[in-house]
Design brief:
Largest sheet: 2 strands, antiparallel
Order of helices and strands: HEEHHH
Strand order of the largest sheet: 1-2
Distance between the termini: 6 Å
Number of helices: 4
Organism: Streptomyces argenteolus
Number of strands: 2
Radius of gyration: 18 Å
Shape: elongated
Number of domains: 1
Protein name: SPW repeat-containing protein
Keywords: Membrane, Transmembrane, Transmembrane helix
Length: about 140
């Protein structure tokens, strides 16, 4: 069955699924680890380990791929960027120094740039080089 190209639910789902998945995945990978690790030499690392961030990025590829391979790239890019920005702002808002705003801004810009690049690659590979529009959608 062929889907209508003017179906308004298609772009909405391409935004909502990644926008809801991003904070859920943030909580699953990063939300539970809030303590810095103090080493014997007095240095500190954390609160997140590299494997946690890698896990978040890799699992975010699932909703990104789902949406970018079916829709224009705007939905998944905006959805993941918004979801990660809200999740990081909520998670880090208890920082008394106020510097969390810089980190949240870095998350926003980094996720915007990265999801745009990855979405363009996904769209080009899955839709024969047509990154924009919804040409050839089948349901």
């Amino acid at each position: 069955m062929r889907r209508r190209l003017d179906d308004p639910s298609l772009p909405l789902w391409a935004f909502l699924v990644p926008a809801l998945a991003a904070p859920v995945l943030w909580a699953a990978w990063l939300g539970w680890d809030q303590q810095y690790d103090v080493h014997p030499d007095g240095s500190t690392t954390g609160p997140y380990a590299a494997w946690q961030v890698a896990g978040l990025v890799l699992t975010l590829l699932i909703p990104l791929y789902w949406a970018a391979s079916r829709q224009s790239i705007a939905g998944p890019v905006a959805g993941i960027t918004a979801g990660l920005t809200v999740a990081s702002a909520y998670d880090w808002s208890d920082d008394a120094s106020g510097l969390f705003v810089i980190g949240v801004g870095m998350i926003m810009v980094g996720s915007l740039v990265t999801t745009t690049a990855v979405s363009l690659v996904i769209a080009a590979l899955t839709r024969g080089g047509r990154p924009g529009g919804a040409i050839g959608l089948t349901g």
